[in-house]
Amino acid sequence: MNEFPQVLTIAGSDSDGSAGLQADLHTFFIRKTYGMSVLVAAVAGNSYGIHASETLPLAFIEKQFDVLSDDFKIRASKTGMLSDATLIKTVVQAYQKYDFGPLVVDPVITTKHGAQLLVDSAFQALKGLLLPLAEVATPNFFEAQLLTGVTISSEADQREAAKAIQSLGVKNVVVKGWHNQTDQSEVADYVLLADGSDFWLRHRYFDTTHINGTGDTLSATIAAELAKGETVEQAIRVGHEVTTTAIENEIAVGHQFGPINHWAAAKI
Q1: Which end of the chain, N or C, is more open, meaning fewer C-beta atoms within 10 Å of its C-beta?
Q2: What does the pLDDT look like over 32-63, one tens digit per residue?
Q3: H-helix segments, the chain
């Protein structure tokens, strides 16, 4: 009873299904784990953009943690976008109260193009309260710069940023490479593990507007693999393969900024 790998996402609902909680659940499904959720917010959006958003009452968020802990054996968890400092503090306190396995933090601070999403108080709460709980953190290029103050203009800078993020209390760090969309042929993601070992994950740059949910998918895959008992290194490698496969095989959904193709990655 209750032994099937169970994974939790702590995230917001994206009504078009391309990112957030929906992308996490798509990912948990293709990785053959049972996905559960603590819903923290809801977004009214489509492929053209986000048009409205609401944060759920904090007491209701806490209750979701409570009832899940009463029944299920959650083996790993992940966070998505947490929009304000009070919400981050609520999630941190609730996660610390229960045994929901190792935590993967997707530190949603900026868009893929560098636009900052969090006000300063929320940024500081994420940096000081949430990241120290992370088994794995997966910042994008711009988020890594904001978290560390390191200007990343070389692979040496990328390594320096990863070490600085690890010094915040994060055990394992994936610093995703820059997508500059000008004349790029390759993207290089840098991985620094808790034991000090490191490696690069490189993939071809895909010139597409269908990239919604890439960060969610990477972090959700890592959480799913950890729930199945894989090592952190293997979980990250699988996450990279799943995400790049889902990007490469474009799916015709939406008119502008569309989702990645989880069906293609289901074969992995």
Answers
A1: N
A2: 999 999 999 998 989 888 888 899 999 999 99
A3: 20-30, 58-71, 85-97, 120-125, 141-148, 155-166, 214-227, 232-248, 262-265
pLDDT in tens, 140-192: 999 999 999 999 999 999 999 999 999 999 999 999 998 665 677 899 999 99
How would you label 168-207 residue by residue, b for 16+ Cβ within 10 Å and e otherwise?
Answer: bebbbbbbbbbbeeeeeeebebbbbbeeeeeeebebebbe
Provide the whole-model pTM: 0.96
Instruction: Tell me the C-alpha to C-alpha distance, in Å, between residue 232 and each of 176, 193, 237.
Output: 16, 8, 9
Determine the Cα–Cα distance for residues 222 and 231; give it in Å rounded to an integer: 10
Which pLDDT score, from 0 to 100, does residue 106 have?
Answer: 96
* pLDDT at residue 180, as a whole number: 64
Is residue 250 domain-resident?
A: yes
Q: Is residue 1 part of a domain?
A: no
**DSSP assignment of 184-226:** --EEEEEEE-TTS-EEEEEEE----S--BTHHHHHHHHHHHHH
Place of tokens 């690890």: 166
Q: For 76-119, write each residue's pLDDT tens digit.
A: 999 999 999 999 999 999 999 999 999 999 998 876 655 677 88
Sheet holding 34-46, edge to edge: 49-55, 34-46, 6-14, 74-79, 103-105, 136-137, 172-175, 186-192, 198-204
The verdict on residue 63 lying in a domain is yes
Please report, for the domain that includes residue 245, its CATH number: 3.40.1190.20
The answer as to whether 254 is a domain residue is: yes
